[in-house]
């Protein structure tokens, strides 16, 4: 089990990533667990761009992220789920991938995202789950100036990318959006998430996006 707590003072700014891909191999007993809590102060800007989570055959993984924001905090978050190599060429040979993300603003829950993929219980490659794709990307962005016009611009931008993906984007109940991307290659999803991050930084911060990949 891994547990991390990140605390940000007022007006802090941080771009955070992982040391590398999170690789989960065969899990013999209890599942691998990771807990992360992020406490953001007023007027904080926080980017968390994680490397892919790769689940190999018989992997069992649980991750919980809790984000505590103030009304003036801003956050950008991404993650990518991918199946690891399997000697029998099966796309979904892991036991379970369970990601739980909770976002609070002034201690009020504004997003509860409970993503649970269990291949032996469901045909997750089919309609209603992965829709024939193997990789899944997620993104959240919370900012006081988020509106429908920004979402429309992002939709048109993503549509203009020549990638074999499917995606959906939705407004939250607060000023923010959620984005899901289905694909068959990590690079395709990373490319789209980077384009979204670049657009946000251009529109709201007029600064370049830091290069956070290790390859």
TrEMBL record:
Query: Has keyword Nucleus?
Result: no
Task: Please indicate which superkingdom the organism of origin belongs to.
Answer: Bacteria
Please name the GO terms that the record assigns under molecular function.
nickel cation binding
Keywords, comma-separated and alphabetical: Chaperone
In terms of Pfam families, this protein maps to:
UreD
Q: Does the keyword Ligase apply?
A: no
| Family of the protein in this entry | Belongs to the UreD family.
* Protein name per UniProt: Urease accessory protein UreD
Q: What is the originating organism of this protein?
A: Macrococcus hajekii
């Amino acid at each position: 089990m891994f547990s991390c707590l990140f605390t940000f003072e007022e007006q802090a700014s941080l771009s955070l990533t992982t040391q590398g891909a999170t690789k989960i191999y065969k899990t013999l007993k209890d599942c691998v667990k990771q807990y992360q809590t992020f406490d953001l102060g007023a007027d904080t800007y926080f980017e968390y761009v994680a490397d892919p989570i790769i689940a190999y055959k018989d992997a069992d993984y649980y991750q919980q992220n809790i984000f505590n924001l103030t009304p003036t905090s801003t956050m950008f978050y991404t993650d990518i789920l991918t199946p690891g190599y399997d000697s029998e060429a099966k796309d979904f040979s892991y036991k379970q991938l369970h990601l739980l993300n909770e976002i609070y603003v002034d201690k009020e829950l504004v997003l509860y995202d409970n993503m649970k993929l269990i291949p032996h219980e469901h045909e997750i490659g089919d309609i209603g789950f992965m829709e024939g794709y193997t990789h899944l990307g997620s993104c959240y962005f919370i900012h006081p100036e988020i509106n429908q016009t920004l979402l429309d611009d992002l939709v048109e931008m993503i549509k203009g990318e020549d990638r074999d993906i499917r995606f959906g984007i939705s407004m939250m109940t607060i000023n923010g959006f959620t984005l899901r991307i289905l694909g068959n290659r990590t690079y395709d999803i990373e490319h789209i998430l980077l384009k979204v991050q670049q657009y946000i930084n251009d529109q709201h911060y007029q600064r370049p996006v830091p290069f956070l990949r290790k390859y």
